[in-house]
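Run log // design_07
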């Protein structure tokens, strides 16, 4: 690796690519051998690599409303896009083992999707994030940007700090806990939910007993059937952020928007084909004033939850993600819905819901 590459910011790199593609005289000095390679490719190619159209149907987006003591609303979405990492690989800056500089945590919504390059790198058991922009993302909770605490609503600065810590605990317990990923019941996460929010409790009871389109636990929790697949290694890559504001009746309303990247392999002994399931979730939590809302100490009420899932299965409401491997992809139909970049966090979840509304089979442009 060129030693100078690690000191280049994302903004400088993107500006270099634009200037190199334009061929202007004011293009910056080449920062590395990698930059020279990409500049040469830009001169030789007429455009970006053609996106691969996924070969799997997509669950149509759906809404869900529940109420509780003060009438907050919950909306749910699950969009599944199947993809083929054997064909969509290495379009991203750097590769695992290539010494790419880790990104700092996200503090605000990015203005564009991650950049691409022409490298071709397949994920492996040893390097499950190879060929993906997630190789530069944080490991587990370390990839989630947390704000500083300040007195807000009914809470003091110290109470807000505790609410933020418990909000992060929910993300870990619902989407990163190894036992839950292996198909276990997310009891630690459920324990943080307001037990007096009746509609949510009904949803949880039904979702784990008889999962369906309307009551799908994957809207809030990440689970794989351990008899079928297993997560590769001990690391789930994440990128996202947590923010908060004063909500209704002086509550502290915490919004979490995080993308999780799960590399998985078949559970059968000797399996080595690695694919990735990518989940972006937005969960809004209300840390309510117990003087105004019926709630147990240390729990929050759900305001909303939305999920956008790539390669997690389609019309298979078993309560577990069912990622496609090469055999399933060969037998599935082509996607006919809008193109979806699962690593693009520049679009809000509300906008993603509108884009996916009434969509058919989806199209994944990256793995």
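design_07 sequence
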């Amino acid at each position: 690796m060129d030693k100078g590459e690690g000191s280049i910011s994302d903004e400088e790199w993107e500006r270099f690519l634009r200037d190199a593609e334009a061929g202007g005289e004011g293009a910056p000095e080449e920062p590395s051998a990698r930059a020279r390679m990409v500049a040469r490719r830009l001169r030789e190619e007429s455009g970006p690599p053609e996106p691969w159209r996924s070969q799997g149907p997509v669950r149509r987006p759906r809404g869900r409303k529940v109420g509780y003591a003060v009438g907050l609303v919950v909306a749910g979405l699950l969009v599944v896009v199947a993809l083929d990492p054997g064909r969509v690989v290495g379009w991203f800056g750097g590769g695992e083992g290539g010494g790419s500089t880790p990104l700092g945590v996200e503090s605000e919504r990015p203005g564009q999707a991650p950049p691409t390059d022409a490298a071709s790198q397949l994920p492996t058991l040893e390097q499950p994030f190879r060929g993906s922009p997630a190789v530069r993302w944080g490991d587990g909770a370390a990839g989630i940007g947390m704000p500083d605490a300040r007195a807000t609503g009914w809470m003091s600065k110290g109470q807000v700090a505790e609410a933020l810590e418990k909000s992060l605990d929910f993300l870990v317990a619902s989407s990163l806990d190894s036992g839950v990923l292996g198909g276990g019941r997310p009891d630690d996460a459920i324990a943080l939910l307001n037990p007096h929010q009746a509609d949510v409790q009904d949803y949880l009871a039904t979702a784990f007993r008889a999962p369906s389109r309307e009551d799908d636990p994957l809207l809030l929790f990440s689970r794989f059937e351990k008899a079928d697949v297993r997560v590769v290694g001990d690391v789930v890559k994440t990128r996202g952020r947590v923010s908060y504001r004063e909500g209704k009746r002086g509550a502290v309303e915490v919004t979490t928007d995080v993308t999780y990247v799960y590399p998985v392999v078949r559970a059968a002994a000797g399996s080595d084909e690695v694919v990735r399931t990518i989940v972006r979730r937005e969960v809004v939590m209300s840390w309510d004033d117990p003087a105004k809302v019926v709630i147990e100490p240390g729990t929050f009420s759900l305001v909303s939850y939305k999920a956008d899932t790539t390669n997690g299965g389609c019309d298979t409401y078993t309560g577990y993600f069912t990622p496609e491997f090469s055999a399933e992809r060969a037998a599935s139909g082509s996607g006919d819905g809008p193109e979806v970049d699962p690593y693009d966090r520049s679009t809000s979840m509300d906008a993603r819901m509108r884009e996916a509304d009434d969509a058919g089979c989806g199209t994944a442009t990256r793995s």
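The chain has two domains: 3-44, 78-364.
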